[in-house]
Amino acid sequence: MKPEKYHFDVVVIGAGIIGIAVSLAHAKKGLQVLLVEKNPTFGQGISSRNSEVIHAGIYYPPNSLKAKFCRRGMVLLYDYCRDKMIPHKRIGKLIVQTDNHQKDDLQKIYANGLFNGCTELRLIDEKELKKLEPEVKGINAIWSPNTGIVDSHAFMNAMLIDLQKEGGTIVFNHQFEKFFPTDKGIECLVNSSVIITAKKLINSAGLDSVSLTKSIIGFPETYQGNIIFCKGTYFGYKNRLPFSHLIYPLPNNEGLGIHFTLDMNLDGKFGPDTEWVEQEDYKLDETRTNHTFKEIKKFWPKCDCHYLRPIYAGIRPKLGTKKHFNKDFVIQTTEVHNIPGLINLFGIESPGLTSALSIAEYIANE
Ligand SMILES: Cc1cc2nc3c(=O)[nH]c(=O)nc-3n(C[C@H](O)[C@H](O)[C@H](O)COP(=O)(O)OP(=O)(O)OC[C@H]3O[C@@H](n4cnc5c(N)ncnc54)[C@H](O)[C@@H]3O)c2cc1C
Questions:
Q1: Hey, which of 12, 18, 20, 46 would you mutate to test ligand 1's pocket, going by the most ligand atoms within 8 Å of its Cβ?
Q2: Alpha helix positions (H), the chain
Q3: What pLDDT score was predicted for residue 225?
Q4: Rounded distance between C-alpha atoms, residue 134 and residue 108, angstroms
Q5: Is the C-beta atom of 353 inside 6 A of ligand 1?
Q6: Which of 124, 139, 329, 366 is the most core-located residue (most Cβ within 10 A)?
Q7: What DSSP line would sit under 76-120, residue for residue?
Q8: Residue 249: is the preceding peptide bond cis (ω within 30°)?
């Protein structure tokens, strides 16, 4: 049987936050867009297992892609949420110094935030911290009033509705298998039975984005990269929580440290912790609770370990090795890998949700 054949200007792999945002940005330019997802519905990958925080762009090294996309993404996301009535809240965040040794580090984060354009940040002392969060123990803190929370599924849903209104096509239960770059575009084999030709192919397959490049005929091995999975488990608290803002310790090498966040139902959770895993595995492990408890105690001495329990886990896609991994997003264009029309998005971990609309804007202008 001959395969069915279709042609699109832009084909996007994966209906996560990034793939949906990128599809919408292209459709708004009047291009014929096809978004293909292997699962029966959208947002089942990294996009449904995160903290749902709208980040202000404080920590990221100046001029990094994270710094560039996060700040602009935050502005675009707040505007989009307001226009589309997506549940969100500019709830504010505290980065708390719990130890005297951390004084210089807190100052450095503050200075970095200012450099990244977060001029709304304020350094506050213990007294002011107590007023904001009476049960948090800290010596000093950074107050970030622009940090917020969003219902990430409502965000994805609103973008999908817009994508359909703009004439975009969305297909679920279809998986990309192989790619053949040709003079007329990239031919993509889907579900072993359909060939889709794309002038522009955007690989936003999240945890699968690196392994998919092995199926692109002629893709240079040097640029395939090595993906490693850093699992993060979240912990619920089966008792009243006394916080009304997001509370973070100082960041560590793997991420932002075990922090406290609220969702749009104002349910609180702690996490995510960090654990290197070999494969996509979301199993919950009670034995991780003790380490999390010790980290929480540093900023909330009244925490009672008996109330903590793991509730869900997500996986951060990192590029490199456990010791030396890339800390920035990677956007690979033709200039890098020499395959016309192909854009690979690798390592889109936090703040990918916040950055989605600005990453999409950038790629649509490529
Ligand atoms: C623990 C954790 C916490 C985070 N917290 C925050 C936060 O608070 N704020 C923030 O801004 N960001 C946060 N992030 C980052 C954010 O969640 C991600 O950057 C974002 O969700 C990535 O979306 P994506 O579309 O790239 O990936 P995904 O959501 O994984 O989407 C990729 C899609 O591709 C599909 N796919 C894969 N292979 C194929 C194929 N061959 N054919 C068809 N479809 C395919 C998958 O099924 C999947 O649906 C966090 C991330 C993690 C891991």
A1: 46
A2: 17-27, 65-84, 103-115, 126-132, 152-165, 209-212, 289-299, 334-337, 352-364
A3: 87
A4: 25
A5: yes
A6: 329
A7: HHHHHHHHHT--EE---EEEEE-SGGGHHHHHHHHHHHHHTT-TT
A8: no
Q: Is 224 in the pocket of ligand 1 (CB under 6 A)?
A: no
* C-beta separation of 12 from 202 below 8 A: yes
- Mean pLDDT on 321-336: 94
What is the set of domains in the chain, with CATH numbers?
4-49+153-225+325-364 (3.50.50.60), 93-145+227-319 (3.30.9.10)
CA distance 260 to 147: 13
Neighbours of 105 (CB within 10 A): 14
Distance CA 151, CA 153 (A): 6
Q: Is 314 in the pocket of ligand 1 (CB under 6 A)?
A: yes
Burial of 136 (0-12, 13-18, 19+ CB in 10 A): buried
Residue 250 in 3-state DSSP?
Answer: coil
Region 94-107 average pLDDT: 97
- Which residue's structure tokens are 């770059």? 181
CA 49, chain centre distance (Å): 9
Give the tokens for residue 245: 């803002």
Model-wide pTM > 0.85: yes
